[in-house]
Amino acid sequence: MTPGLGWKKGWMTKICSLWLLLLLCFPQIPDAREKDPEARMDATLSAAQKAQEKVEAFLQEEERQRQAIRALEAEVEALIYENHMLEKRMARQQERLLALEGEGEEAAGLARLVEPLLGDLLTFLEKRMEGLVPFRLEERKGRLQTLRSALEDGEMDTQSRFRRALEVVEAELNLGLFPDAAAATVAVEGEMLHGTLLHLGAAGLFFLSPDKALVARWSGERGLFLPLDATAARSVERAFAMVERRVPAGLIWLTLPEVP
Q1: Would you state the torsion angle of the CA atoms of residues 223, 227, 229, 232, taken in this order, to the nearest 10 degrees?
Q2: pTM confidence score
Q3: How many CA atoms does the CB half-sphere of 52 hold within 13 Å?
Q4: Which of 7, 14, 152, 217 has the most Cβ atoms closer than 10 angstroms to its Cβ?
Q5: R_g of the chain computed on alpha carbons
Q6: What phi, psi does 116 have (nearest 5°)?
Q7: Which of 134, 159, 175 is the last residue of a domain?
Q8: Domain boundary among 135, 150, 175
Q9: Number of H helices, E strands in the chain
Q10: Which domain holds residue 162?
């Protein structure tokens, strides 16, 4: 054996033996920290307090998370209800659209039938006006022109055109239904005279000069005004006064030579 190695091993053996002896003689070596119980208690309390703070922070965060989850759940329920209501509204709107499409097809078919009839009605009214009494012609021709413009207006629907046609027909039917008077210029025996036209319905259309010196009646057969005799003229003048409310209304016996 090498002498140097034997010497080192001897010292190592002695050191280990001394260490074991110390452990056997002093099995419990007091820790330096055990010399100060108050410091150890303070450290323990401080650690416990920090742990409690961490627990409370964790519980608070957990409660916030629960509140956020409850808010999200409520929002989800509201969105589900709103989506359900929107689906119902969309279903109703779809039903209305289908109904409108059906009505539109029906209205289009009806329009194809009505539009030609409205044109025929306008032509008939224009020809009819030529043979009727010339009373308020400008107004009546204006209504016919309005009806023609409506029929030629591509943006106007059939319902509006039909309403215009009814207005014209109603105005023509009401013409002469009640006594009516209007200022006019007419030809009597080849002379143009200014005066008043008096429409007495079935009795006919009469012309009165401003001085009441001339009273004439429209003849549909001849297409002109024919003067009346003095007796008939006085009756017409009295009827005219009743229309103007200058005298009380009453019964008038009017004898006419012909029916226009």
Answers
A1: 70
A2: 0.49
A3: 6
A4: 217
A5: 58
A6: -60, -35
A7: 175
A8: 175
A9: 5, 5
A10: 113-175
